[in-house]
Amino acid sequence: MLTAKRALGQYSTPLRTVDYMVRKVIEKIRHLKSPKILDPAVGDGVFVERLMASGVNPAFIHAFDIDPDAVQANAHIPNIRHQDFLTVQGGEFDAIIGNPPYKSKRESRYIKENKARLERQFGEIGIRNLYAMFVHHALSNLKEGGTLCFIVQDSFLTNVYYQDFRRFILDHCLIDEIVLAPRKLFHHTDADVRTAIITLTKCTGPENREKRSAHVMTLIDRLQEEDDYFHPPQDKVQKLEQRYFERMEKHNFFINVPVSIIDIILKTPLKLGHVVDGGTGISTGNDAKFLRKPSGTAEEDPDWVPFYKNGGTKDAWFYETPYRIHRDWETPGRQYKDFMTRNAQHYFKEGITCSSMGVEFSASYMPAGCLFGVNANFFSDDREHLFYVLALLNSTLAKYIIRAVFNRTNMVTAGYIKRIPYIEPAPELKTRIADIARTIVASKKANPQFDYRPLQCEIDALIYEIYGVDPADRKLLEQFCGNLYEAV
Q: Is 29 contained in some domain?
C-alpha cells in the first residue's frame, strides 16, 4: 500500500541533493537584500531547513503544501500555508525551489478531479504530469529574472508528449543547468524513478529571443553519487548554446551529446522513415485469448503463425518468437473492438522487428509468413536494402541516437526510430554491410548462441565511416551504449 505522501506523488529528497540545489539558488539571489523564496510543495520541510541552515532569513522563506499534515509538521516555518500551489496567482517570487509531486494523468486522483480547470490553465503544455504543471506555474509566479530550481522526473527531456512543455521552457527561460541525478537517488523510498535537477532563469518576451538562443547551458550527464554534483567528472559536463535545443525536431533536451552527432541529426535531411515502410501492427487487446505458445511437436498447426511482439537484447539480429497467432486476423478484427490492426499491407512479409520495452534496443530479422505486434516493424521490397537497414539499426551509432538523443525513457516506438538520419552509402559499401548482416542472421538462426560481436564491430566501423563519426566520439558512444542501464 502506498503511503499518503507517495499517493500524492511526493518523495523525500536526499540531503546532499537538497544542499546542492540550495547552493544554486543562493548563488543566484545573493545580491538581493530581501529575497522572496518559495517551496511550493514543502513536504518534510527539508528545503526550508537547509535554506535556513545556509543563513537565509526565515522571514524571506515561504512554503505551501496541499497536505494539511505536512503544514502541521512544519508549523515552525513562519510563512507556511495550507495551499494548493496550482491555484496561487501573482506570487512574484525571486526564487522557487523544491521537489514537486510526480504523478501522471493516469495515476493522479488530483488531476482526475480537477481535469477541466487544469486543461484550461495548462492547455499550452498539457496535463500529462503534475511536475510539468508545477514548473509552468512556478515560472508564472516568478519575477522576471527570477530563479527556479526543481528536481523532477526526467521524462520531460525527450518524451514526445512533453514537446510543448519543452517549447514553453525555451520560450520563457534561460536554461542555466540540467543535471541528471544518480539513478538510485530515490531507492531509499522504494521508488525507481530517474530524475533531473533543472535550474532556470525566467526570461520572457520576443525582445529576449536572441538572448535565450545564445545562452550557454551547462548540461551534466547521469552522475553516480550525490557528491558528484559539486565536482562532476569533466567528461560528464557539456557547455552548449540553447539554440541547439530550439533547432532539434521535437525540441529534445539531449544531455552531453557530441555536437558532431547533433550536426549529423540536424544537417541530414533524409530520415529512416523516408527509406523504409512500416510501423505498428496488431494489438490483440487480450494476448491470453489470442496468442499461444508453440506446441513443440513436429506437427505444428499451419493456421497458427509466428507473432513478433517485442524482442529483447539477446534477440538482436534473429530469434524464434515464442508466440503464435491465428493467421485469420480479419475475423477477430471485426468481432472484438479491442483487437486493433494497422499496416495490414505488410502482414506476412519479410521484414525487421524491433524491441520497444526496456532500456536496451535491438532489431531482428523477421521471416516472411509472420504477423507482428505494436512494436516497431519495417519493410522493404529490396532485400539488400532491408539487410542494410537491419545492420544500421543494430549499429552503436543508431542505438546511441535513439537512446541518448531521441528517447531516454523505456519505451521506444516507431516514431522515434523513423527519425534516425539516413545517409545512403556507396553501392559497394552497402552491399558489404548487407552481406555481413545476412551472415549474422544465418549464423544466429543455425546457432542462437553464435558470437556475432566481431562482425558487429566491423559493421560499427563501417557505419561510423559513412556518417563521418570521429574516433573520440566513437569512444563516447561505445561507453554510453555499453552501460545503457546506468547511462540513461
A: yes
What residues contact 165, with CB distance under 8 A and at least 6 apart? 125, 126, 128, 132, 135, 136, 156
Quick one: pLDDT at residue 12?
Answer: 84
pLDDT of 212 reads 99
Last-in-domain residue among 223, 256, 289: 256
Nearest Cα neighbor of 346 from 279, 273, 285, 417 is: 279
What is the layout of strands, in order, in the sheet containing 277-279?
277-279, 377-379, 351-354, 363-366
Contact criterion met (CB below 8 Å) for 165 and 156:
yes
Co-location of 435 and 397 in the same domain: yes
Angle subtended by helix axes 383-393 and 453-467, to nearest 10: 100
Same domain, 123 and 237: yes
Specify whether 330 is located in the same domain as 190.
no
The per-residue pLDDT for 476 is 92
Give the integer Cα–Cα distance in Å for 115 and 329. 38
pLDDT given at position 104: 81
Does 244 share its domain with 277? no
What are the Cα distances from residue 149, in Å, to 12, 93, 203, 344, 461? 16, 13, 15, 48, 42
Choose the final residue of a domain: 228, 256, 284: 256
8 A C-beta contact, residue 463 and residue 397: yes
Q: How many CA atoms lie within 13 A of 93 on its CB side?
A: 27
Answer yes or no: do 187 and 123 share one domain: yes
Exposure string of 427-446, with b = 16+ CB inside 10 Å and e = fewer, is eeebebbbebbbebbebbee
Domain-located, residue 169:
yes
Please name the residue that has the C-alpha cell 532569513.
57
Partner residues linked to 411 by β-bridges? 357
Residues of the chain with pLDDT under 70: 1-11, 187-191, 296-298, 313
pLDDT at 10: 54
- Domain count for the chain, please give it: 2
User: Contact, 440 vs 286, CB < 8 A?
Assistant: no
pLDDT for residue 8: 45
Nearest to 166 by CA among 195, 198, 120, 214: 198
Structural contact between residues 455 and 307, judged by C-beta atoms closer than 8 angstroms:
no
If residue 319 lies in a helix (H) or strand (E), which one and from where to where? none
**Predicted TM-score of the model (pTM):** 0.91
Give residue-wise pLDDT tens across range 404-446: 999 988 888 999 999 999 999 999 999 999 999 999 999 999 9
Rounded Cα distance between 157 and 420, Å, is: 18
- Distance of alpha carbon 465 from alpha carbon 381, whole angstroms: 26
Question: Could you give the count of Cα atoms lying within 13 Å of 49 in the half-sphere of its Cβ?
Answer: 14
> Does 251 share its domain with 277?
no
Which pLDDT score is estimated for 387?
99
Whether residue 266 lies inside any domain: the answer is no
The boundaries of the domain holding residue 223 are 4-256
Apex CA 116: angle with CA 114 and CA 118, to 5°? 65
